[in-house]
Structure formats: C-alpha cells, structure tokens
Amino acid sequence: MDNGITVILKEIHHAPIVSFQAYVKVGSIHEGKYLGSGISHFIEHLIDDGTERRTREEIDNLVEAMGNASNAYTTKDHSQYHITTPRQYLTQALDLLSDCLKHSTFPSDEVEIQRGVIWNELNGELDEPTQLLYDLYYETAFREHPVRFPVGGYKELFMELTRSDLVEFYRQHYVPDNLIFVATGDFQSEEMLGRIGVAFEDFPRRSPPAIELPREHRQLAARRAERHMDVELAYLVMGYHGVRIDHEDAPALDLIATVLGSGESSRLIQILKNQHQLVYDIQTWSDTPRYDGGCFGFEAELVHGKLSEAEARLIEQIERLKSESVSESELRRAQTIETSEYLFALQFVEEQGAMLGVDELTTGDCRFHEKYLQQICAVTPEDIQRVAQTYFRPENLTTVTIRPKESSSSVHIPQAQSVPSAAEKHLFSNGMRLITKSIDTAPVVSIQAMFLGGTRFETEENNGAFHLMTNLLLKGTKDRSAEVLFEDIEAKGGSIGSVSGHNAFGITVNLLRQDIEYGLECLADVLLNPVFDVDALEKLKLETIVGIQAEEDDWYALGRRQFLETMFQAHPNRLRAAGSITSIKRLSRKDVLDRYQRYCVPNNMVIGVFGDVQSEHVQDIAQRAIRGFLCNMLIVTVVEVLSSLLFGVGQPGGRLYKRLRNEQLVYHLHGYPYFGIDCGYLAICGSTVPNHMEPLIALIDEEISNLQRQGVSDSELERGKQMCLTNYLLSAQTAGVQASIAVLDELYGFGYDYVNQYEAKIATVSKEAIRRAANAYLPLNKRVISIIRDA
Q1: What is the pLDDT of residue 628?
Q2: Are strands 495-500 and 234-241 parallel, antiparallel or unpaired?
Q3: Where is coiled-coil annotated (predicted)?
C-alpha cells in the first residue's frame, strides 16, 4: 500500500470464514533500552483494551458478537494479532483490528489491570518446568544476542515499565512499514484490498527505529546449566547453534529434525523411548528464524536417574549422523512428512494466512514455503551428513536440565476453492456403520474408527484397560511389527494414532489422497489382527505409569483429577483414562484381551472417512478391508450457550473472564462443559496467587448467582450464541474434525448428520432457557471445588 503496509490476500472459498492477521515486526529482541522488560508482550496485552473510538468493554462485546475467535501472541521477533470470523462480520472485524493497531490509547486503569495479569503470568511460569527449561537454555546458549531474554521479560524490569514507556514504544514501532496485514478466506480480492485501504487510510507513514542486532560469537566450549524444582520427572534440553531461515543449510537441518524425532518410526523414538526406555517423551526441533539466533535442539522428559544415560544415547545418535549417511528411504520418508504437514495445514483458512504472513515476515516472500519444499526435496544424504558434521560439534553444544529436588522423586500446491458435499451413511451387513464425506480443500483423507467404550465401562480394578488395549492395537499385528507399521505409514506422509477417553475409543489414520486404500487396509489389519504382545504390554504399562507420575508436575492436571474424584465419588467419570498406578500394575494380557473381544466388534463401531474421496470408492474399499470383521454379540445446546456466556468458547470471554480480569484475580481462566453418556459437568478452571483464592471463589459465586436471578440481556445472549457457532465453524474446517463429530454423534445415537441441526438448535435457545439451566445445573450447594496450591 502507498503508506508502507504490506498486504497479502488469498481467496479460499471452501467455508464461509474470513481470517485477518496482523504481523508487527517487533518482539523481545528489538526492545532496545527496554531489553529484558517484556515491553512488546505488555503492549500485546493492551492493544485491544481501548482506542480513540472504543472502550475495552465495547471491544470485548464486539469480539464476542463476532464469535470470540480473536487472540494475539508475542515472540522473540514479532507480535501477531488475529480475528477469524464468519464472513458476514468481515467489515466489523477489519474495522476493529485496524482501529486497535492505529489508535490504541493505553488507558491507565487498563495498564494496571494487565500489569497484574502479566505479573501473575510470570509468577505462574516459575512453577512450569518446560517454560523455565527453555528460558534457561537461551540464557545459557547466548551471551551477546538479545534472544537470550525471555519474551515476557524479567519481573523486576517489567514492574518498572510506565504507561509513558508503553506509549513511546508503541508509537515508534507500530507504524505502517513495520506492519504485514494478511486476509484469507471467503471474499473477492479486489474488493478486500479496497476495504483494507480505507481501513488504514488514516495511518500515516513514519520511519521505524533502526535496530541493529549484535552477532553472537562462535561458542568455543560446551555449556551446561541445571536447576532443581519440586517435580517428579527430570526435564532435558540439548541444543546447538544453527542458522537463519535463508541459509542454504536450513532445509537439511529441518530434515535432520524429522529423521531423528518426527513420528513413532523416527530414530529417537525407536531407540531412546521404545528400545532403551530412557525417556517418557522426546521432541526434536530446528528453529531457523530471520535473525542470527537459530538453534537445533532436543527436549526430553524422563526419570531423574536416567539423565546421564539418555544424554549419552542421544549423543550416540548425533554422532551416527556424522559418521554414516542416512538411507535414501529414510530421507524420502522425512521429505514426505515435511510435504504432507504443509498439505494438511491447507485445510485451515487461518493456517494458510499464518503461513503467508510468517513467510513474508521471515523472508520477504509470502510464497517462500512452496519454494522451500522444493529445497527440502532436493536435499541429499550427503547434505545431511555434511550439515551434521558442521553444526553438531561438541563445543557448540548447550545442555540444560531441571531435576527434582533432593527431597522429591518439488510438490504441487493445490488451491482450495470448492464446497464440501454432505455426509453419507452406509450400513454393512455385519452392523458396522460407515460415514463418508467429500472435502477437496486439500489432497488429504482422515479415517476414524470409533467404538463405545472407555472409562465409562471400567471399574477401579480394571481402570486403564481400554487405554492399554487401544494403544496395544498399534504395537504390532500378525503381519506387521509396530516399527514396520509406523515406518510405512509415516514414509507416506501419514500418521496413525489411538484415542481412549471416557465414552469411546478408537484408531485414527491421516493420509494423502492417493493412499486411502493403504490406510483402510492398515486400519483393518490393526483392528482384526493385533497380537497383544506381552513384552509390548509391559513396556506400555511402564510408560503409562511414568505418564501418570508426570501429571504430578502439572498443576492443572492435578486440579482436574482432584475435581473429578470429588464430584464423581461413585460414577466412573472419576476415573483417569490412563488408569491409576495400582490398577495398571495389576492389569494382565487377559484383561486387555477381554476389552478387545467384548468391545472391538463391528456392531459397536462407526468408521468415518472424510476428505478428498468419492463415497462409492470408499464403500468398496471398506467392504473388502473389513470383510473379516464378524458381528459379535438435548439440553446440550443450552448448556453450551450458558458456558459461553460465563467464560467464552475457544478463547477466553464471557462475564466471568471479564469480571475476574478487571479485578486482577486470575492469571489464567477458562471453562468447559463435559457431556457424558449419562451425566456430565460444567467446569471453571483458574490460576491465581494464594491470597486471591477466597476472593476469586466469591466472585465466581456472585456472577453465577447474578445469572441465576437476573438472567441475561438480549445482546449478551446473541453474543453467546455466536461464540458457539463460530467455534464450531472454525473447529470443523478439517476432514479429521468433521469425521470425528459425525462418527461420535452416530456412535452416541444422535445420528451422523446431527451436526446439521446445530445452528437451528442454538438459535432456539432463549433467555429463560439460560436462566433455568443456570439454576438447574449450577446450584452453589452442589458445586465441587478443587484447589491445588504450593506446599
């Protein structure tokens, strides 16, 4: 645009959605005299808390009326703001986002409210081992570059920031030449460009401050740092200095990360987790930013006593990359995974906008990712070995750990333009139900096979049996080992996984379009021919126990566990899907086989195949694949709207969130309704400091009482309904989510096309229905309060 704003537009017509994303080229590394204070993050919190035209309350109400799908984040090198909304609200969304970017006023009272919110956030991070782990890594690995500072800043420097500091920094950096504005979705580009031009016509061009980032000197010796916390597990990050996104070695580093740590057939999962059982979880990452602060690293969660051996085994795998070439098949697998991840992301309107925006931000080319995939596909085994030798030098390594305290234990990129067809249901003679839906937004397919089962059908004695059984389905069949299963499917750019919850369990498969027959054949093999190997069972039991122990380091998981056990003292909803340590130790292969024989039967199963498929073709393949599977012998929408009115849907919102944020009582607040087969609950979850606990509970009680007595206004009710509708619209963009909704609705007896009635049912919710539901389902004398606090 004439005033310096970079505008990127992409029409996507497969859903009536528009997404606006604004990228401001300022993050924690650009803070100059405010380095280490988190001023960029502070401004991100305040940008929508008041403008020259609107109060924060007016902004909140407008966002909720558009569906409440708005949020922001700050990184090391940019701040991002976005609104995704149904097409009919694009005018309001564009006007609001441009208004906040141009005319934020930073009201003094809002500054202090957000200061309290961020203060609580920074305090909360002190109890979060993973966040501390990464902060510790960057502080240790970098000595000169400002990437070493945490995005949120240090508490002491943050508290010194004044409103004047914020206004000055905002006026300097929030200028047209620092702004990339992206619009994707259901619109006409020429008209949209005109709308954006009008929205920003009063945004005068000003020069952003010149910022010169220091270069990090080459690391000459290995570095190590360690912290102790009240945790059950140990946490490890090992990393090497890497490259920028525009460096010729960036594609090879990304592929190394995929070879080592992407998927169950990757080297580190196979060797460190499955073979030697040294880690509970391990992830590999290659961060190639637009500045000289790139890193290649590994993060692992493990038992404290296995740290030394895990580090040694990890170094062995790094040295192996340097001494021997990866095979052509392993490299092709990694290249296919990189490509398929991009193709699966094309299902989302907002994801396409994010890729365009980040590409423009980091390289100046909004189509960079398409070219980058071509570079990925051109990498050779020799490139992998050379790059490993170049960067994975012992002196370039930084290792940080958090331990328990001593007292603790060349690809075609398709364009998405068409409208999906309606779902179709097919009943087979063995009782199996198949639901298909053609969605050609991307050349991908999601297959989901779901069964009634889970903790709803367990007792204290066999709790966790469904979890073990479902996971063991993927640990080998009569003709495929687990290694072969994952290696083959991941080599095709696909994935296979298991699901086990309170009411259902099943297997999910995601693949590219051309591999649908292979996917259904794999699914049939997993369901029909599992071996339930005893050794695999014992390994899985150990992993499950370690996972249960890991929950002891997660305050949210502890609180939810305590809440469910208190609310459901007899009902199986109190049980953990993974089981308890006691029950897992007790379960045998016979117990697991019993769950399989009773519940893995065709008349208890619904299969969904959604994506770039034809219904008749899928029926034929499924009929052949599952032929050996023999037969073996709502109030909901009102509560959804009620919950949205209290605490939003998808993103924080509603009267509780607003009230508690104003009172600076919470760092984090969200809620959700849970609908079980025979009973459910509505949960409110918050994080706060200890001396705010009683006022927090009192204000929650007060707001619920007000809702019960006074009900809601017409405008508030409409905002609540729109939040529910928008959340569904945004969440159901992918074939996988649509398949899951249809399959579970069919499984639970609502019918596979129940979702088609959703909008009409939401529309019928009245103010009186909300008031009745609040009184019926939120009686204060029947509430359950779970509190997890530091000892």
Answers
A1: 59
A2: unpaired
A3: none
pLDDT given at position 629:
60
Phi/psi at 497 (nearest 5 deg)?
-150, 170
Residues 6+ apart with CB under 8 A from 99: 51, 52, 53, 54
Residue of 56, 245, 37, 251 lying closest to 157 (CA atoms): 37
Q: CA-to-CA distance for 273 and 302, rounded, in angstroms?
A: 10
Whether CATH 3.30.830.10 fits 636-782: yes
Which DSSP letter does residue 33 get?
A: G
Domain 424-625, architecture per CATH: 2-Layer Sandwich (3.30)
pLDDT of residue 636: 75
The CA distance from 572 to 719, in Å, is 35
For the chain, residues with pLDDT lower than 70 are: 124-127, 406-421, 626-635, 791
Torsion of CA 581, 585, 590, 592, to 10 degrees: 30
**Residue appearing with tokens 């808390």:** 49
Q: Which residues share a beta bridge with 504?
A: 452
Same fold, 6-199 and 636-782: yes
* Alpha helices (runs of H) in 379-481, residue ranges in sequence order: 381-391, 465-472
Please give the structure tokens belonging to residue 363: 């390289």
Query: Cα separations (Å) of 337 from 330, 387, 433, 558?
Result: 11, 20, 31, 35
DSSP codes, 133-160: HHHHHHHHH-SSSGGGS-TT--HHHHHH
- At position 473, the amino acid (one-letter code) is L
Tens digit of pLDDT for each residue in 724-770? 999 888 888 888 888 888 888 888 878 888 888 888 889 999 999 99
Q: Where are the domains of the chain?
A: 6-199, 223-404, 424-625, 636-782
Output the CATH code of domain 223-404.
Answer: 3.30.830.10
Distance from C-alpha of 444 to C-alpha of 348, rounded to nearest angstrom: 13
pTM above 0.90, yes or no: no
In 528-654, beta strands by DSSP E: 605-611
Q: Count of alpha carbons within 13 Å of 608, Cβ hemisphere only?
A: 31
6-199: in CATH 1.20.1250.20:
no
What's the pLDDT at 331?
94
DSSP H helical ranges for 600-667: 615-625, 636-647, 654-662
CA distance 722 to 281: 39
Q: Is 763 exposed, middle or buried (0-12, 13-18, 19+ CB in 10 A)?
A: exposed
